[in-house]
Specification:
By secondary structure, the chain is an alpha+beta fold. Helix content is about 30%, strand content about 20%. It folds into two domains: about 260 residues, Jelly Rolls (Sandwich); about 70 residues, no CATH class. Helix 3 crosses helix 4.
């Protein structure tokens, strides 16, 4: 059965994401990040000049942003009014329900402003533009002290669009400059209940749930009810921010006719030098077609060596004889990378 137009009511029934106020670097690094759960950071960027300009009007904020804009081209997603802001696959799954237009960012902003009063506007979304490359000086005036100076700030603009449920490989702080946003979070272990689409053909780069959060069809996707039971939601207004740990699934709704967000992605290098997603894909390539008995045997091998469910797998070896199982130095990482490249090049 379908739940019908269940969006707003359903949101009220979900657990609320934990809130923090007056967050400083110490609190963020020592208390929030170790929880490995989403966290609302209320008022974190309320004093940004960009937020103040946005409180005046969308046009005032656009004028402010234009003072930093070098005019570099960006990609804008533009979808017809019929998709109701949900940027997703076409019904036949052979493409997406929007087009990508290359244009200067100020043209994207003008496109959004031109449709603000429309009763049924097209979906418009331009994002992931590095402020360092496209808007030098913006981050000096609108600075986030919680992240390392090397972390790139990216700016996003759109109208009332929805980024369907996906995860990121990096940790993320998203700061609301203008408009209101609703994040709905699902823990990583809910993957089996999210009915994820293709891994290599995605609307926005990361695998995406096929379930429409606002109208979940529980006849087609029955286990999604379990995902909803584990979900939580965050309602954000201008000046607020939200921390999303990597691998947490999140659905993001921009709720107003004009929305600006700045986000910061980073990946803690202590979590490993390689790409876990690439390892997943190679695992699919090399293991999926084995017999069930052999897949189970390899699962136990992975548990032992990768997930270390039995403890340190090389504890019985002297450090100088542990090879690939040794401490992950830059030299060892390079050696493993070279070994993998040679392996992948074999017929």
């Amino acid at each position: 059965m379908s739940l019908g137009n269940a969006g707003p009511g359903m949101q009220h029934s979900l657990a609320k994401t934990a809130e923090w106020r007056d967050v400083n670097i110490a609190t963020f690094r020592n208390e929030i990040v170790p929880r490995d759960r989403p966290a609302i950071l209320r008022g974190l960027v309320k004093d940004w000049p960009a937020v103040r300009e946005g409180s005046q009007s969308p046009q005032a904020l656009c004028n402010y942003i234009s003072t930093f804009d070098l005019g570099h081209p960006v990609q804008t997603a533009v979808g017809p009014p019929a998709i109701k802001g949900r940027l997703f696959y076409r019904d036949d799954m052979r493409g997406f329900n929007y087009e990508r237009v290359v244009e200067p960012f100020h043209t994207s902003l003008e496109r959004i402003l031109a449709h603000m009063d429309d009763a049924d506007p097209p979906a418009i979304y331009a994002g992931a533009i590095s402020t360092a490359d496209g808007f030098p000086g913006f981050s000096r005036e609108n600075n986030l002290e919680l992240v390392d100076k090397s972390v790139v700030a990216r700016i996003w603009a759109g109208n009332a669009v929805t980024a369907p449920t996906h995860y990121d490989m990096s940790d993320n702080i998203a700061c609301v400059v203008s408009g209101h946003r609703r994040f709905t979070f699902f823990p990583p272990e809910q993957l089996p209940n999210l009915y994820v689409g293709p891994l290599d053909f995605t609307p926005a780069g990361q695998p995406t749930s096929m379930v429409k959060l606002a109208e979940p069809d529980l006849q087609r996707y029955p286990r999604f009810a379990q995902a909803l039971a584990a979900a939580e939601t965050a309602e954000l207004e201008p000046g607020d921010a939200v921390f999303t740990p990597n691998l947490w699934w999140h659905n993001v709704e921009s709720l107003d006719p004009f929305n600006i967000l700045v986000n910061y992605w980073w990946y803690d290098s202590q979590r490993g030098p390689g790409s876990p997603f690439a390892a997943l894909i190679y695992g699919i390539y090399s293991i999926n077609q084995l017999s069930a008995k052999r897949r189970e045997a390899w699962r136990k091998i992975f548990d032992h060596y990768v997930f270390q469910t039995n403890g340190e797998p090389a504890a019985h070896l002297a450090p100088e004889h542990r090879g690939m199982l040794g401490n992950m130095t830059s030299q060892l990482a390079s050696y493993i990378k070279e070994w993998l490249l040679k392996t992948l090049q074999r017929p």
